[in-house]
Design goal:
The chain is an alpha/beta fold. Helices cover 38% and strands 20% of the residues. It is built from 14 helices and 14 strands. Helix 4 links the parallel strand 4 and strand 5. The termini are far apart.
Length: 374
Amino acid sequence: MAIYNILVVDDSVFMRKIVSDLISENPQFKVIGTAKNGQEAIEQVKLLRPDAVTMDIEMPVMNGLDALKHIMEEQPTPVIMLSSLTQEGASETIRALELGAVDFIRKPSGSISLDLYKVKLLLHEKLLMAVRSKMSVNQPASVQSPVVKVNPLSLRSKMMKDNLKQADSVAQTITTTTHFSHLVAIGTSTGGPRALHQVISNIPAGFPAPILIVQHMPPNFTKSLAQRLNDISQIRVVEAADGEVLQTATAYVAPGGWHMVIHKDPNRTYKIRLTKDEPVSGHRPSVDVMFESLLNMNELKRHVVLMTGMGSDGAKGMLSLKQSGATTTIAEAEETCVVYGMPRAAVENQAAMHVLPQQEIAVRLSRCVQNEMN
């Protein structure tokens, strides 16, 4: 049995002890060191070369985000973030995932986090996934945001933050409509926020289709994910709301803890429905649930994507959509997946028409939609 070496980083002596003890309860893991701030973490990663790191975000001297960026630039290593449950904590976690963190564990609020014991099995599962991830292949030496092609309106709105909401409102009035013949649906899990950053930021303004997104993530974090994607994209990105009417040039992120399905009213208006139905394959939201809600919408040209993530959620639904006449089905290529689980399942059951690296997915979607429009 392989033994994996883990570095624990937290400014709290108590929390370092708690996390170290939890990790050590699994015989596959050995805690080989600890650090009390980001600067020490960078030094320990270089010295000890651990197989994975657990990293707190809020720390003195250097915080977890800055440390993560340095680690990914200098010594790429799988990192699991310990995140607070606050809105600020969720926003910082999304940024950490963009910078290259493999995943995160929700850190209970309060100075004495005894409840952390409750996440022991999840911690073990995510560490095991982290040490098996393809960090050396997928994390470049310089971790930077994707290049965003910005139109003049969105550029002006970014430069004039005080007028951001007003500019967004104008943009929506000009570029969105509830009438469309195309629809894109994307499912992803571990590694998804970084993959979505790459794909959604390169969808062009005025994209003539709505985009549905299921990212396996708890409540609150999906709201921060949607806000972050909205900030770096040329289209509008929102956390989905029950009863919301679908519009073009808009991406809808399923809220954590809710299944997202699409239904059509008698006026052929497509709306979002959120449900608290039982989890499917352990997930709510579930990619399969979203995909399967599109099965009877043959009047739409459906473009379906599965990206990085553990398990097989979405593969069954993608196959059903392909069999029902979906226009495009895409699985992310293994070379760019942090975890090649969900896309692998789609390839193995022959649901994927195309297997593409992450950076080519937005281009293919844009090309497919434009070609079909012409």
